[in-house]
Amino acid sequence: MTYSWYSGERGNNYTVQVEYTDRDAQGNYVVRTRSETRIRWTSVAGEIDHFFDDVLIRATKSLPEHLLSAINDWQLSHLEGFRPEFLAGFLTERYAIPLEEANAEARAFMEGYVRELCRQNIGGDHQRVHQVETHYVGTTFKHILLPIWIAAYRYRDNLYQILINGQTGQVVGERPWSWWKILRLVLLIAVSLGAVVALIRTVVK
Fold first, then answer.
1. pTM, whole model, 2 decimals?
2. Are residues 53 and 6 in the same domain?
């Protein structure tokens, strides 16, 4: 559980009419009026309570972090107590990130989330968060084993990895990109748009 106190500012938009000098069609100076949006800032402070349940932090350094982060549909409510037979016939990696480091990463995630909750609580059209003080109560941790199928393939001397969520079947991975094909597609779209614009101009004339 987190208990946070924050201070900041709430910005509300308002419109004013501003006079300015311009030239008319005859070149004469004239005074015109335009609308401008401005912001009125008000100091605010408040409290936010939030319960974090199962902040998932990777414990491996052998897999790309951006791929692990992309596997985000774990059903942690279906976790079961460990039994040795779960690992029969499989290779299992021991955690490579110490608890202190994992805890710091979890705190950084929660602090960012709490800061966004503060913005929502401030309301208004704009928000400034100057200070947030958060107290953590009842923090616990647990090691869990999550099933991930790992595959890799090589293409033109580059290695690409694929991860499969062994619980839900979600697939994430890397793939080679042909920049020449991408450039050719962009040029083809640009030429097509140019042809359409030219056709529309011809029709209009």
1. 0.71
2. yes
